[in-house]
């Protein structure tokens, strides 16, 4: 990275892109994360903004090492820290890293939840942390078990897209390692159409461009509002994504693999309760879709369909005209009784075959899981996604 090349075409003192990196106890993986910043081929001005959220390991020393190396390459590095005994959480750390930065555009790169390296090295690092501080058992495994390493062209290609779409969250395709991990999810991430980036925002997969790939303008970030700082148990990325959409933001994806997204089954799952995310999803569906529908059918008379029905507001439950399914046993029952209702008689919702059902549909069937059978059934109805149906699987 030549300093003269980085500064070409930029006014003195201006920064085009701030790479935002929240850090918490990341010594096992931080080298590779920061190396991927150093390897970027972006020729405009770029800075790295790191916020170290109460790390108790060797993260600070690694940051100091890379600060020298990056600044020698013409990349200013801003480092903030929370020096208290307890971390404030990923939402807080991201907000702090953004506020201390100055770039016109923000490129997110997480180092809050990574486990990198061979099993032997990874285990030694984790054991070392646990031996020093038993309390770290909770903190070390609180976040999603992935790590993020940027491809060299990531900042350049997403910057080129962002300047054309200033009110957008720009994502990218990802490469999984190992390749067979979470195959369905990876296919979903990489293959959604431009329209589906907006129509499939209600599924259990979460944002249609995953947070480690986000790139957006600073101005738009502040228009949407900062990340929720509630800490453990708060799905701050999902809530920000919903606010972004509610304010009319676009969702785009650069169709190049710009992020290595590793999966480590040894690590535990995200600390946010599934029920918390479910409740946010239902509320968002009601606000964005059901509020404008007079009636609809829930596609799935099984567990997930019934759970959605029970979770709806009373006003939206009244709009459900039927459940539909392909399971003959469910259809033979004829109806679903809402036993939890205080109404007398208790509401009974008809169950019919999907070919006899009336759109629009809220679909609670998992995609890419039945060898194409569900997709074939849906396609035969000649419906339009985003108008005649939405996925809520």
Automatic annotation (TrEMBL):
Xref: CDD domains: beta3GnTL1_like (cd06913)
Cited Pfam families: Glycos_transf_2 (PF00535)
Domain Glycosyltransferase 2-like: 18-111
InterPro entries: Glyco_trans_2-like, Nucleotide-diphossugar_trans
GO MF annotation list: hexosyltransferase activity
Coiled coil: none
Protein name: UDP-GlcNAc:betaGal beta-1,3-N-acetylglucosaminyltransferase like 1
């Amino acid at each position: 990275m030549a300093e003269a090349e980085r500064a070409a075409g930029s006014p003195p003192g201006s920064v085009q892109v701030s790479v935002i990196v929240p850090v918490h106890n990341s010594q096992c993986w931080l080298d590779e994360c920061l190396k991927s910043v150093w390897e970027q081929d972006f020729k405009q001005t770029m800075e790295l903004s790191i916020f170290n959220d109460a790390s108790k390991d060797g993260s600070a020393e690694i940051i100091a090492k890379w600060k020298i190396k990056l600044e020698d390459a013409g990349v200013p590095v801003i480092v903030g820290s929370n020096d208290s005994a307890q971390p404030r959480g990923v939402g807080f750390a991201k907000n702090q890293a953004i506020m201390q930065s100055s770039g016109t555009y923000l490129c997110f790169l997480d180092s809050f939840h990574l486990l990198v390296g061979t099993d032997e090295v990874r285990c030694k690092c984790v054991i070392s942390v646990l031996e020093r501080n038993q309390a770290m058992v909770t903190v070390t495994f609180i976040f999603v078990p992935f790590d993020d390493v940027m491809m060299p062209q990531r900042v350049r290609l997403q910057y080129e897209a962002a300047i054309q779409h200033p009110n957008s969250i720009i994502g990218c395709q990802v490469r999984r390692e190992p390749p067979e991990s979470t195959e369905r999810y990876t296919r979903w991430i990489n293959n959604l159409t431009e329209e589906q980036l907006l129509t499939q925002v209600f599924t259990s997969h979460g944002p249609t461009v995953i947070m480690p790939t986000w790139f957006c303008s600073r101005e738009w970030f502040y228009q949407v509002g900062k990340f929720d700082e509630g800490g453990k148990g708060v799905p701050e990325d999902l809530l920000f994504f919903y606010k972004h959409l509610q304010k009319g933001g676009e969702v785009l994806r650069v169709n190049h693999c710009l992020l290595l997204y590793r999966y480590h089954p040894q690590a535990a799952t995200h600390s946010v309760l599934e029920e918390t995310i479910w409740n946010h999803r239902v509320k968002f569906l009601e606000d964005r879709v059901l509020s404008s529908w007079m009636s609809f059918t829930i596609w799935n008379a099984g567990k997930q369909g019934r759970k959605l029905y029970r979770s709806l507001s009373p006003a939206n439950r009244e709009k459900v005209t039927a459940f539909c399914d392909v399971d003959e046993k469910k259809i033979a029952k004829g109806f679903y009784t809402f036993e939890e209702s205080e109404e007398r008689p208790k509401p009974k919702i008809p169950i019919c075959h999907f070919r006899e059902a009336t759109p629009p549909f809220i679909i609670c069937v998992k995609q890419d899981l039945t060898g194409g059978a569900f997709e074939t059934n849906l396609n035969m109805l000649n419906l339009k996604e985003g108008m005649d149906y939405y996925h809520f699987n």
